[in-house]
Amino acid sequence: MVGACLDRGQLTLAEFTEESLTDTAIHAIANRVEIAEDPESRFPEAYSAAVEIALRDGRKLARREAINRGHSERPLTHAEIEEKFLGNVRAVTDESTLKRVRTAVLSLGTEREIREFALDCATSGQLARMFRGGDVLA
Asked: Coil, strand or helix: which one is 57?
């Protein structure tokens, strides 16, 4: 994970693909990573982490996140949640399905029936036919 973050500047589902897992640039960085126990960790209450990077010129860069993003003490904004959702769903489906599922998710908590939500989220024709036929959620 650290190698992917440093190489790509992010950690998303794309960093867990077969291509990423075999990326020699990521492995080159990962091979230089040392892991140590964090005495200041708030686990299991929060997923805290710290990183220290030693540069070739002798400088050290350090960063600590005592509380992970998305924790109740450090919640994501609605825009961040939507961005993460879209990035994750985009990795596994087409834009048409993505838009349909996004609209369905945003409708949660309304008067909309669960069957309509399930139909909008169904990606295979067979699954959609099951819902329409009443075999599921009858």
From this structure: coil
For residue 24, the tally of other CB atoms under 10 A from its CB is 7
Burial 91-127 (b: 16+ CB within 10 A, else e): eeeeeebbebbeebeeeeeeeeeeeebbbbebeeeee
Collapsed DSSP state (helix, strand, coil) of residue 45: coil
How many CB atoms within 10 Å of residue 131? 19
Cross-strand pairs, 49: 65
Omega into 44 within 30° of 0, i.e. cis?
A: yes
Largest pairwise CA distance in the chain? 67
∠ CA 126-127-129, nearest 5°, is 65
Interval 52-100: pLDDT, tens: 999 999 999 999 999 999 999 999 998 998 888 888 888 878 888 888 8
C-alpha–C-alpha distance, residues 105 and 33, integer Å: 39
* Residues 21-54: tens digit of each pLDDT: 999 999 999 999 998 988 999 899 999 989 999 9
